[in-house]
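Why this split exists: single-chain examples teach little about how molecules sit against one another. For that reason, every record in the complexes split bundles all components of an assembly together and asks for one structure covering all of them. Below is a record exactly as it appears in the raw files.
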Amino acid sequence: DQQVKQNSPSLSVQEGRISILNCDYTNSMFDYFLWYKKYPAEGPTFLISISSIKDKNEDGRFTVFLNKSAKHLSLHIVPSQPGDSAVYFCAGYSGNTPLVFGKGTRLSVIA
Amino acid sequence: GAVVSQHPSWVICKSGTSVKIECRSLDFQATTMFWYRQFPKQSLMLMATSNEGSKATYEQGVEKDKFLINHASLTLSTLTVTSAHPEDSSFYICSARDPWAGGLDEQYFGPGTRLTVT
């Protein structure tokens, strides 16, 4: 059973526009959700997180929204830049458990 | 933020040999480290959870005798791929949890090690 799902394997967005990456989860016990960005042949780097008790967290161009009733979260990047092109993973965890990752969405920002 | 390093970043070895990958937390003490493997076009798959001073906990389907994990100190965990085969070729990533991250118990990822077995 896949606890974290990113149903869009890829997304193309024009530079300057908004990128919206979606993530669904099934485990209602998750305390935190995190978004990671990954370039090829590199480890993931942390982008932004949100606690399960919040519905929005913003950090510069990145905003994460959480809809607990729908078990859905999304990452908004605005304005999108070519350097944002990467694979984005959402992940959830609870307590002392390891992160549970989605399969990732490859974002391509076209200049 | 906290820094996690991995060594080597890239290694090629012959089939049947063993390879050791090191994961270090450089500016914090990590009581727990995790080892992940990434297959092409797939998510990061957790292999094992490594706790300092105790045996690693392996995920289902991961051969503990093949992937030996040693968490000898609060800043170092090693993954040894024994008797490597071409199907072990992959990108191995470690992460370390900073228990003092305050509020959010974040994991910090290493840069990864690409293993190619010929």
